[in-house]
Amino acid sequence: MMRMSLTRLAVWGLAAVLVFAGKAAFADEWPEQSVLHGYLEEGARANPGLQAAFARFEAALDKVPQARAWPDPRLSFGVFTVPVETRTGPQRMRFGVAQMLPWFGKRDLKATMAEREAAALLAQAQSAKLTLFREIGAAYFEYAYLGKALDSAREELEILKYFEALVETRYAVSSASYADFTRVQVERAKVEERVASLNDYRFPLSERLRTLLGRPAGEILPMPGSVPLMDTNWDDGRITSAITEHNLALAALDAKAEAADAAADLARREFFPDLTVGLESIYTDAPRMAGVVNEGKDPVAITFGINLPFDQEAREAAVRQAKNSARATRLERADKVAGLEAQASRLLFGVRDGSRRLELLSGTIVPKARQNLDASMDAYQAGKASMLDLLTAEKTLIELELQYHRVLTDQAVRLADLDVLAGEEIPRTFSRTPALAGEEQARDLRVSLTKPEASK
Questions:
Q1: Other CB atoms closer than 10 Å to residue 225's CB: what's the count?
Q2: What is the pLDDT of residues 87-121, one digit of tens each?
Q3: In 173-303, which residue ranges form alpha helices assigned H by DSSP?
Q4: Which residues pair with 93 in a beta bridge?
């Protein structure tokens, strides 16, 4: 019992470390770090799926003392329907107790099987924890991206409203074509529909996150402020090595293979008989004649018995079954390793490609779009460009800024996927997203476009 208590304490201590691991990985530069970390802690405590996974492990752990236990002693009792007359007296009933002694090592092998099966479920529960953290992180970052998409759409709508009013004024004095007027109206209607759709999409995203946290229905979670910029000092080789060495699905398969090995060893020992040791006594009345030696004494017998393993074919089949099960599990593991390596390669490529795209967008593409907007504004004020040219330049800049945040979100999800594959949280830093080159100036320009003096 003490051993089992210590085992439970060690396992739940490990679970607590896994649940709250990674707190130090957050950087102070990202303001929302405490919000996401709080969500992870809350999900670890309250998510019913994760609790069910650990409950299954607890149930399997309780099989270990059952497997190691001795068979129950057997008590027997019988009454002679007709007393057996003997020299020492009539025998009226018999009673005895017997204990079956399994062949050497059987109990330990059964306990080993139960322990390895529990270890497989523990690995699955830990994998469920990492998967839950991945889902919470992905839902959180998608929710944050929705906020960025809503901000961009609303900002674009304000610009379109201004352009619509401006085109309408110029159309009234024949300075703009009707085609320009209707095109702006179409663009405005499209953006209004997108704003409505994004607003409506907030509820299912909030519900996804709320469900993962195990909170009651009906609550709309606040929208996160931003998607962070993430970085890790682990290179591709170290991440790949962690995946092949510490992946929890592989750990579960290893435990299952070890359980099958123990089952094969146990099946081999079934060829040997189990011993049964017992003690019997017969209740004897006093004899009819006096003076008989040992009169009325109850005879006592020590009994020994063994089972006869006649069905050798069935036992051979059990050995083959356990061997094939172990072989199948190891083949499944080899196939899983190949699949994990391929999946890791795709994710690592995505991380590298995302880093390149972030650098390209922030360092080259967005600044060029800013320059294009400046040039379009100058041309518009000089009467050498249409309002739709200006609108196109503005829309391009907005879309590129939103694309930058989309890549940030995808990058965060890929790193969470790598955590699941590696069986541990890959150390990373979280920092506030740096302002894009020209982003603040472009926003100032958008504000100026909505002012009446901008039309002069």
A1: 14
A2: 777 888 999 999 999 999 999 999 999 999 999 99
A3: 178-213, 236-246, 248-269
A4: 79, 283
